[in-house]
Amino acid sequence: MTDELVTVRGRVRRRMFYNQDDGFCIVLIDVASIDRGKSVGGRSLGVKGRLRGIEEGMDIKAQGRFVEHAKYGRQLQADLILPEMQDLEGVYRYLLAGGISGVGKKLAGRIAETFGAGALEIIRREPERLLEIEGIGKAKAAEISAALAEQKSVEEIMTFLLGAGLETRIANRIHRELGDQALSHIKANPYILAGIAGIGFATADDIARSLGIAPDAPARIEAGLEYVVSEAMRRAGHTRFPRDYVAAQAARGLALDRNLVSQGIERMIASGQFRLSATPSGPMLAQARVARLERRIAEQLLALAGESGVDVPKARIAATAPITLAAEQLAAVEGALRERVCVITGGPGTGKSTITDIILTLLQREAGCASIALAAPTGRAARRLAEATGRDADTLHRLLMINPENGESSRDDAIEADVLLVDEFSMVDTVMAGHLLDAIAAGTRLILIGDVDQLPSVGAGQVLADIIESGALPVFRLAHVFRNAGDIKLNAAEIRQGRMPVLDTDASSNFRFVETMNPDAGSVVAVVRRMIETDGIPATDIQVLAPMYREAAGVDAINAALQSALVGDPQQSSRKLVHGRTAFMLGDRVVQTANRSVTRKDGSTTRINNGDVGYITEMNAAEGSFKVDFDGEVIAMTRGDLIDLSLAYCVTIHKSQGSEYRGVVLLCALAHGYMLKSGRRLVYTGMTRARERLYWVGEREAAALAVSDVGERPRQTGLRAALADCAAGRAGESLAEAV
What we know:
The protein has 739 residues and is an alpha/beta fold. The longest helix is centred in the first third of the chain and has 26 residues, at 138-163.
């Protein structure tokens, strides 16, 4: 594919393929003109793109980039196809192609005949003239006028953004977020693009430069500062940063004097965009909205907290339990009955699932809690919670009605429940915690369960750890790992304590260490085959985990090797779709890498979330279409959706959070040294994804490095201080009332 954007005009000679659902088409056109003098070696050209209602004989304008097809030669991969409007026929086809509600062939014909070739300009300038046409009332006229205005806006925006090198899907996203005035907004301040997913500061800065914005413009400096903080939150998970760090990073990235950047920080503090706080380690800078959110979370948690007065005798608790409870388990059950808000934390094999069901049963029977809501951050975690309790469980995204495009909650009513229990709470980031607490009604009991020793949330913050460390709320710890838990969980407990796991286990153990010097993708394929053939675990129940994407034992190389071993060599297959360096084939296991809403054929909507795993069950490579089965939800996709998919035979340990698999192959190699130094939580989290069998592959030295925990750096957040401050304030108020 060439990078240069070209515009081709011509008439459709033959429609070779057309999808009525989404307008995707492959057509052969007779070329009338090509801008910039491009030669295509003849008067015919194949064009691929989207235009609803495209027909043979239609005059079109197509904007895109040339690609070389192995069989058909040079073609145009069109980002934008529009009907030309040189005559009445062009106007008629343009009206039909726009998909305007209620405008069919007859009405489109009457509009074209009444106003002629200048119909669209007349309607946009004088929309009331639509009333001259039989069958159009005020409401219909307003609808047609608005639709045409939107179409014109989209065309202008797409032309501008595609010319700047953005993909069609990103350009559509910009229009959805910024509306019909997107182009004027962008020209006034192109840095608003930096906050839109898939763009980033560098692209926005390039567009700003093309519009003549000076390097030292306040808008550029402030956008650069916002970007530095947002990127650091995304990459490192902190919610606040040393002021000097922000200034230095922004000055370097913007190539500006640090004094200019410091002035920008002062402006953003004064305008309320940033908040500065004094801490023992120096002045810390945070986005004001994040600082306010952390404070609100603290206030809401403490507003819900307090004793409920429910005191169930130990004998009745024991009678409910299917096993004899250990002392710490009994204390956790009593605490969850007594407290309106509490945290239960513990690793695998400590009995969290066992006491969860006991707590819910007793709350219903002894405390009169008729309605109980259960939730977890991921679909897999929600299903495990439902299996453990025999009750329905939702994902937090579904419960809170999170919009996949912007991450905001659209829920406007409180969760109707006497008790809300959230499992795998270590995965909940600051933003999700805010949405959750906004949706909880006063008087609702809240039980938070999670393993604080796992990796913190992918998103910014460490909400569970901050709640525990603040001392502001009741916390019940389950530390004892029962011997019947198996070697996987026993070894995980050793790592949690900073001790080397027992690597040399016998043949009956569910934990196996495969000592391999410099493991690579071939080493992993051999272990996966062993797990399939010897342990009887099917490939669909095996997950390979690696700390890094690159290296010989990284995610990318392992995915390519396992794809060839389990599905076939993509070089030998014609049934594939390629995006970047990855070929996707029928039967591939894939993971969604972005949240999105999907409209089903019946008009209803569903959502697929970042981290959802599925299998490609159908593929039409010629049409660029395929289907993915995400745990029974079959989603139709097109080539453009590949940008949000990756192969999933191997994923990072971070990506596996909240999931559990029958068999896990965990890579821990010296080549992963940088990641292994980030803390023992990494391998601990990876180990605890395995339910039946774990193969740890790598060198003993790598295992020792991973367990040593030499490089772990706690996240810098403001929630712990906010909780402690709010708790102290409530204590002071109580003391004043007592006096």
